[in-house]
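The pair is quoted verbatim below.
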Amino acid sequence: MMEHTNIGLDISDSTIELVSLDKKGRGFTVKAKGRVGIAPGIVERGEIVDAAKLAQALSAVYQQAGIPLRSQGIAFGIPESHVYIHIFSIPEEQKKQLNDILRKQLPKILPLPQKDIHFSFQTYPGANGSVRVRVLATSKKYIAAWQLFFREQGIKVNRFDSEQIATARALFSGMPKNPVAVVDIGSRTTHVGVFDKTGIVRSQTIHIAGSTFTGAIAAEQGIDMAAAEQQKAQMQISGSPTMTQVAAALGDRLVRILKETTARQNIAVADMMLVGGGSAQQGLLDVLSQTVGVPVRLGASPLVPGADVGSVFIEAVGLALPNGSDPHIEFLDANGLVPFDPKAPKKTSTIQRGQYQPLKTSQPASAPRKQGKLQSALMKHTSYGKNKSKFGIELVALLLVFILGAFFMDSVYTYRDAQRQQGRDEQAAQIQQLLERIPNIEQPPVTPISPILPPVLDIPGEELPTTTEDQTSYNAEQTSLQVVVVDRLQ
């Protein structure tokens, strides 16, 4: 049986992509790949809705790739709707306090409960001797739901990664010398990540994507979405007035993001790469090249040269690349997730790049030890003195030990049964929660894209930043970070 050690798995609301890589010289080759579509209502906004049907689709993509389902572990991509990025500055002398700063400040920035925060961070040189800090965070409950699902399929997750970070890992051999915008055009949303030589510096989403083009065709031709989807694969954007209108609106949003990146962060994007299923739309590359004012090209991985994977598989390729291939953009390790614990002892609180603090579970004191202390105290308390007969003392002591032992054993069995029942209840609750979806935490609802767009297109919404950016240095005496951009990806 062929061994697969570098497997990347990308699950979106509409497709599953899987790539297995093999090391070859300084690069990699594609050992196996698979891609299947999934019906609406199985995964929504990155959350599992129908676990049984998702398991069937997962089995199908493994079968297509020729990889045993219960093979080696995988790297799994967390969608941007469940990843938070915050960038800020601190003085060099406060670098040692960084972990404490994060534990105090993250709950004030993120719409997550304290105990639900997992985070990883990276530091790099800032202006005027300061230290820039990049924090990536996600929900513990969200990760737990996916871990439970994969465990039930017999799949081990070796690493969780941000989808944008994984995509960058595949596109760049190291970080780009000049700032690049990576535009991932999916089915429902388009994610834009701006990367410079330090890593990701901006992340935003646009609610114009593949299904918007499909809706434009459906409205223009008076057909349903399924028929429009088939038509879209054969159509040039220039051949449809409404598709041209959608492409122009997408270009307008991208121009706005580039201008804001320059104005707010003094970063001028020099290049743009298109990835994702929507990037293959005929004529889109030409339209955007004429609109955005910077060179636009389809993304390809220099680490997997000549591979027939295309931009559709680029994220799965980035996930499959070994963790050490670009360590400064690692995210979370499944075996060492960083828990948010405000009461964590300082001696275990230092978290550096590539060093992760594993989850700890508190172990209750063992029952036999408690029993020994209790018996010792009782025996001391019931000493009768030298004037009592030895026989009487031994008889009373034996009787007490017998009574206490019986009481203790009954308590042990009762406690054990209660613990077993609690375990069964917790497992049932976990599975039920998984099947019913873990609810979004303090997230505003997304306005769904209409299946049939009106003849006069109302292009949905403004782009929403997913990075929070503090343009001023942080001082430990401040009560909170000054946030210039505070908006949640939807």
User: Anything to note?
Assistant: The first helix runs from residue 51 to 65.
